[in-house]
UniProtKB/TrEMBL annotation:
GO molecular function ontology, one term from the record: RNA binding
Cellular component annotations (GO), alphabetically ordered: ribonucleoprotein complex
Entries under CDD domains matching the protein: RRM2_I_PABPs (cd12379), RRM3_I_PABPs (cd12380)
PANTHER family reported for this sequence: RNA BINDING PROTEIN
Identification of the protein by name: RRM domain-containing protein
Ranges in a coiled coil: none
Keywords annotated in UniProt: Repeat, RNA-binding
Pfam families named among the record's database cross-references: RRM_1
Domain RRM residues, every copy: 15-87, 106-183, 209-241
Amino acid sequence: MYSNRDPSLRKSGAGNIFIKNLDKGIDQKALHDTFSAFGNILSCKLATDSSGQSKGYGFVQFDNEESAQKAIEKLNGMLLNDKQVYVGPFVRKQERDTSTSKTKFNNVYVKNLSELTTDEDLNKTFGEFGPITSAVVMRDADGKSKGFGFINFENADDAARAVESLNGKKFDDKEWFVGKAQKKSEREAELKHRFEQTMKEAADKFQGANLYVKNLDDSISDEKLKELFSQYGTITSCKVR
């Protein structure tokens, strides 16, 4: 780990960013060299396992917010070693906890489920965090799992703990996404904001380019996606995969 010797600068948290989905071939020096183009780096750390193998994420702290913001704007969503990386502000755990506690919810959404996962499996796994009133894996007309489900807790604090503990965990070699189950109006508002942000970033980076949009809600169709993006210009093709 590269680190500036002045602890007061590092502890301030200013200019701190988080990078994930890194190719395993990117080592700490490569990470430092990539981000040093945007400003003076106070510390640079690549997360590794006990054997020294990269875990695919890391942290970089600049000596000012402007450098951090430039790095985020230029590198977020770009390809490094043929992998699209996420670059964003680092949020400390206590701040994430505070943010989560402000939004109370009882209904939890989980996706990327194995085809073998049953209602009973969800009931058992999520039930460890508190009493639940329902746990359902969504299925098609033939009874085949759609890969996502919903769990309703009696207590909002239990729901929040389940999200904090289970999001990103692997079950049957599938990494779960676990979060608040949003109402349709909330999903559409979030999608609209995300699309507008994507278009703004694309306008700065590209002219007449293909756009890749990820983490779409399962209810989004080709037509809905085209409708949301058409307000920004002429679309030649649009496909949800």
